[in-house]
Amino acid sequence: MKDWRRPRPATLRRQRILRGEGSLDGRPQSIWCDNDYLGLSHEPRVREALTVAASLYGTGAGASPLITGYTEAHRHLEERLATFTGRDRALVFSAGYLTNLGTVQALAERGDTLIEDRLNHASLLDAARLSRAKCLRYRHADAADAARLLQEHHARLVLTDGVFSMDGDTAPIAELAAAAHTRDALLMCDDAHGIGVLGNQGGGLLEEAGLLQADVPLLVGTLGKALGAQGGFAAGPADLIEHLLQYARSYGYSTALAPPLAAAADRALQLLIDEPEHQARLRDNIDYFRQCADQQGLPLQPSRTAIQPLILGDPESALAASRSLSEQGFAVSAIRPPTVPEDTSRLRITLSARHTRGQIERFCGALAACPSVKLAQ
Ligand SMILES: Cc1ncc(COP(=O)(O)O)c(C=O)c1O
Questions:
Q1: Ranges of each domain in the chain
Q2: For the chain, how long is the longest CA-to-CA vector?
Q3: In contact, 93 and 231? CB cutoff 8 Å
Q4: Is 225 a catalytic residue?
Q5: Mutation pick for ligand 1 pocket among 36, 123, 233, 348 (CB with most ligand atoms within 8 Å)
Q6: How far apart are the CA of 3 and the centre of ligand 1, in A?
Q7: Ligand 1 within 6 A of 348 CB?
């Protein structure tokens, strides 16, 4: 029988139990590493939308969306997403990860070539593998390198994160759009961490850059981060989205997103659109964190998003910092290879609209006092 054990990593990953908002593994903790950027997963009106939908539809969808799992809640959400993203049509999947797997698998196959950023999220890398297309990776955020690969290999698809999940920086999206357009390739942007954070209306990197469907045909995102729910979506030209509905296997061969979560995401999206204060509070917190961190001499990365990594180098330093912060009541997880490249283990710090200025000041003070953070300064 195959031995499933792998060489033991420096320290194995483990789960911790979150209770309510304020305790992790039984210890009071404030959270500095989740993706609930606007705090909408605890918003009373979002929770109410979920409860009302649960009494109407039940807890789960009970079937694939192509059987009987598709409800009015899904349809409303898709319509709102299409309008919000300025695209013809949107399709809701049961996770962002599954959106990427299904979308790329439906658009590329063996014999095709696709190109993607070296630091794209794991779901885009896995999606390329699943499609069996040849996958070439260009240097991180380097549109000239992408253009070179497009020219040399006649790639059919270009895949990029909008906001990079571990670094918080953004793709050179206008330059990538121009390069893809010149070579007649389809550009797909996964803006899981940009939606709700960037752009005047919270529409993400594409809204901020003023890029429309004609420039970046396919926008994918998740409902599980700034929108505080769960699920994912692809938005784009009607014929392309219809193609995904027909051929994305993770769409048709999986139980539809639970209707209460579709209703919660829909309500959260409505709040994002109608109440700019959620996004404004987040932005204010990001700026304040950077200001406090700078005063403490912390080595920040050039990120203007909710993701503010502190790169510490080796996994042990990142783990030691995470443990020390946890003892003081701050939860920040250590991110290590293979999630990030060797020698770039880090604290992936995230900001949320829920944080207060006082919390940010105390957190920055605790970070600066961490011995392994001091060593990296
Ligand atoms: C860029 C990016 N895309 C997709 C996903 C997956 O989304 P979900 O958590 O909804 O499966 C993530 C999640 O971490 C992500 O960071």
A1: 18-42+276-376, 58-274
A2: 58
A3: yes
A4: yes
A5: 123
A6: 30
A7: no
Q: 196 C-alpha vs ligand 1 centroid, how far in Å?
A: 14
Q: Give the pLDDT confidence of 303-337 residue by residue, as tens digits.
A: 999 999 999 999 999 999 999 999 999 999 999 99
Q: Is the CB of 336 under 6 A from ligand 1?
A: no
Known catalytic residue: 181? no
Measured from the CB, is residue 95 less than 6 Å from ligand 1?
yes
- Which is the catalytic residue, given 74, 121, 225, 355? 225
pTM over 0.85: yes
In the chain, where does DSSP find H-type helix?
44-57, 72-85, 96-107, 122-131, 143-153, 173-182, 205-209, 238-247, 249-252, 259-274, 277-295, 315-327, 357-369, 371-376
| Selected catalytic residue, list 165, 250, 254, 372 | 165
The string of pLDDT tens digits covering residues 183-241 is 999 999 999 999 999 999 999 999 999 999 999 999 999 999 999 999 999 999 999 99
Cβ contact 148:190 at 8 Å: no
Q: Which CATH architecture has domain 58-274?
A: 3-Layer(aba) Sandwich (3.40)
**Catalytic residue from among 74, 121, 193, 278:** 193
pLDDT in tens, 118-170: 999 999 999 999 999 999 999 999 999 999 999 999 999 999 999 999 999 99
C-beta atoms surrounding 243 within 10 Å = 16
Lookup result for tokens 């999940």:
165
Name residue, tokens 């059919």.
156
Classify domain 18-42+276-376 by CATH number: 3.90.1150.10
